[in-house]
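Note on ligand handling. Small-molecule inputs were canonicalized before submission; formal charges were left as drawn, and no protonation-state enumeration was performed. Where a ligand contained multiple stereocentres, the stereochemistry in the source SMILES was retained. For magnesium ion, this procedure yielded the string shown in the input block below.
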Amino acid sequence: MSAARGPLFELRGVSYAYPGGRAALDKVDLDIAEGARLAILGANGSGKSTLLKLIDGLIFPAAGALQAFGRTIDEQALEEVNFNAYFRRRVAFVFQDSDIQLFSPTVFDEVAFGPLQLDISPEAAARRADDVLEMLDLSPLRDRQPHQLSGGEKKKVAIAAVLAIGPDVLLLDEPTNNLDPRTRAWLLDLLLELGRAGKTIILATQDLDMAADFADAVVILNEGHQIAAAGPAMLLADTELLVAVNLLHEHWHRHGRTAHSHTHSHLAAHEHEHLPAE
Ligand SMILES: Nc1ncnc2c1ncn2[C@@H]1O[C@H](COP(=O)(O)OP(=O)(O)OP(=O)(O)O)[C@@H](O)[C@H]1O
Ligand SMILES: [Mg+2]
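Structure output:
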């Protein structure tokens, strides 16, 4: 089964509410092309993680429909053993919290786990795990216990574990949280390289700089759980939009006897003059 030309993921009027009726997404229309580098942005609670979970087939639309690889993604589709295996091999999710992703006694076991589920020999699976560890410079951690690693190291291992399956689509939820600048740069380079290799990469993030450096397309959710804007990464230069969806916040500053506001972001320069205090 190969993706027919056209979007890899197609969401039409997708809404979702968690048990108890709490709305999490409202009538989302979205096409995600094969090979896209997409950043999903929005304030806390706007629905970013929910959108990723829907795309990963962990939850299903309450209204509307989601198609992936030319097929409607619902309980029924993912209960089919063959389609489930096909889908899970192609779409991988790096959770925000690495602790819920990592469960193996060693880093090697963690990274070999996925390949061992594939239709290849145990030797080939082990080789693949070692290759991925090598590629991500993680070989020195090979025999460590994942739970004893630092947050950034855990994130790297979680990414290695999903890459070892060879997915076409990588979903990452707030991957730069708690990463130091060097690891963040490492992740950005890795994602750009995976993008050049043709992977479809979708990340949810509050990190405007990461989104600007990484994405060729962005989706911005508002606090009503709707798409406020979707389009090229240039949208991130729209300060008014970012303020409206609470991705930027306005600070009031008092300088001398004058007061003024300015927005706070790394993208938008702080274009204001501080008057000398009298
Ligand atoms: N398991 C759950 N049960 C009930 N409500 C939930 C659950 N998970 C999320 N929600 C609610 O759904 C809405 C969307 O949450 P979601 O986690 O998708 O937002 P988010 O944009 O990822 O936020 P954050 O930036 O804080 O990660 C929020 O109002 C949230 O309270
Ligand atoms: Mg989230």
